[in-house]
C-alpha cells in the first residue's frame, strides 16, 4: 500500500469524516489523492434519493387549509427563495470552500486529520456539505432501526460508501443544486426539517426573510440540533445563542460580514418564537372531519396496497388533498349543536351532513371539543364516525331504523295506505316467526315489545311511520321478513359503528344496533337521491408534490327502486306535519325524516333529508348510554324529564338545515307513483291528534298484548 493510501486509512481510523482518497482532484495535492483512489479502485456510486418527507395539506371544498399531516415538518423551497445571508452563513460555518472543492474539501480533511491525530480523538470533522447531504439522504431513506444505525455507524466501510456517493452527487448536480438540497433536508431542531420550516418555527418568517442573526442561528443549529433545540430548555437556548455567535465570528473572520456587523448581531437576543407547527387533527378547526380524512387514507387500499405504504403516502408525500367539507354547512351544524347542547354536558350531540347523489360528507360536528383533557370533557375519538374512521362503538339508532322496514314493505308491494292492526304490546307468536339471514329461528315469544310513541289500532304505512309505533313496525317486519329488512338496510350502507356484524333480531327495526351519524345520514341521503346509494366520500382531488392531479369520483349504485324511494320520502315528509316532529315543524322546503328514541331514552336521534342535503343527529352519554340515560336531565341549560328524538336531535337538525341550505334553491321530491303505491301519503291523510311532546303511552295492559297481522 502506498504512503498516501496508508495516510488515508489512518485518517479514517482516526475518525475523520472521509478518507480524502475518494475526491476528484483539486489543485496540485489532489492528484496524489486521485492516484490513491485509483489504487484502491474507488469509483463514484449512484445515490438513490427518494423524495424527502414533506408535509401534506388538507383543504376544504373551497381550497382553504384545514389540517396538515407529516412525518417530518418540512416545506421544500428553491434556492432563490432562501435569503442570501442564510446561504452565506451555512457555507461559512459548515464548508467555507464549498464552491471550490470536489466531493470533499481536501484541505479541510487534512486539517481535521492533523487535529485529530494531535489530540488522539475526533476533535474536528472534515465533512463537506455534499457529504453531509449524502449522510442525511441515507438517514432519511432508512425505514428500520437497523438501517438508521447503519447510516450512522462509525466504520471505514460506511465512510467509503458515503465518499462514493458524494463523488456521484458532485457529478450529477451543480453546487447550487447540492446546497439547495442540503438546506431542504437538514434538521434544525424543534421539529423543523429544512430551512423554510425552521425559519417559520424559530422566528415566524420565511427563509427568504431571514436576517443576519437569524440566519447565523439556523446555521449554528445544524451541527447538533438536539443539543441546541430551543424548544426544550433555557440551557438549550443558551447553547444555541453561543453557537450563533460562533457562526457570526466565523463569518467575520472570512470577511463575509464586517466585525461591526458581527458585533451588532451578537447584541440581539436569540428571538426564538416557537411558532406552533401546523398540526394534525388535534389542532384543526374541524377535528372530526380531519380524523375521517386521515383514517380514510390509512384504511383505503386505493391510497396504497399496505398500511405502511398508505402512511408514507399521507405523512411524507407532500400532497394537497381537496375534500368535500363545506365551511358554511359546517358552521351551520356547529352553531345548531352549540345552541341546544353545551360542551360541559354529560351527553354528547353529534351530526353529519351528506349530499344525496354523491355521498359527499359536507360537515361533521359535535358538542364537545376533540382532545384528551377529561376535565374539559374533550372527546378522544371521532364520535361522528365509525371505528374505521377513528370512531367508537356508536349509539343505538332507535326508530330511525323503522325506515328500512318501511322501504322493504314498499319494495314488496305494499301501498301507502296498506296497514296492520296492532295492540300496545307485541310478542312473537312462535320462534320461527322471525328468521335471520342465516335462516335461524330467532323469534322470542317471551319478549314483549311496547310502544313509547303512538298507540295500538289499525296503522297504515303512513300513520304507523308518523306516530312511530313500535308494535306496528315489529309486526310489519314479521310480515315482510327480518332478513329482507336487514338486506334493505345493508344496501344503503348500514353497518355497525364498531365493525361487528349487525345484530339480526326481531327488534332490528327498533334500532338495537349501534350506529354513527355519518352512516345513518348517508343511508337517508340515498332515499333523497331516489334510491341511489353512494359510498361516503371526503376526498375529491389529490395533487402530489410534482403537480400530478388525481380526481376521485363518487362510487354509487341504484340500491332502491326510485319509485319505492319516492313513496318512502312522501311518507317520511309527513313526520314534520302529522307525526313526531309536528311540534318542531319543518324547514320551509320539502323535507323528510324520522325521529329515533331507544328503549327508556338511552339515546335519541333524528335523521332527515331533502333532495339536496341529508343529515343525522345523535345524542347519548359516552360514559355508557345504557347506564346514563336521558331522563331527568339538564342539557343545554334546559331540563328534560325524558329526551326523545324530537326533543333535541330534531331541533338541531332543523336549525342546521335552515342555515346550511340558505341560498340554495329548494328542490321538490319526485311525485309518488299513485298507480303503483295508491293513496297520497302525507299530502292527504288526516292528521292525528296533536300532542305537546312525544310522551310514551301508559303502562302495558295485559289485555293489549296481542299480535294482529293482516
UniProtKB/TrEMBL annotation:
It comes from the Bacteria. InterPro entries: Beta-lactam/transpept-like (IPR012338), Glyco_trans_51 (IPR001264), Glycosyltr_51/Transpeptidase (IPR050396), Lysozyme-like_dom_sf (IPR023346), PBP_transglycosylase (IPR036950), PCN-bd_Tpept (IPR001460). Residues 63-251 form the Glycosyl transferase family domain. GO terms for cellular component: outer membrane-bounded periplasmic space. Keywords: Carboxypeptidase, Cell shape, Cell wall biogenesis/degradation, Glycosyltransferase, Hydrolase, Multifunctional enzyme, Peptidoglycan synthesis, Protease, Transferase. SUPFAM superfamilies: beta-lactamase/transpeptidase-like, Lysozyme-like. This is Penicillin-binding protein.
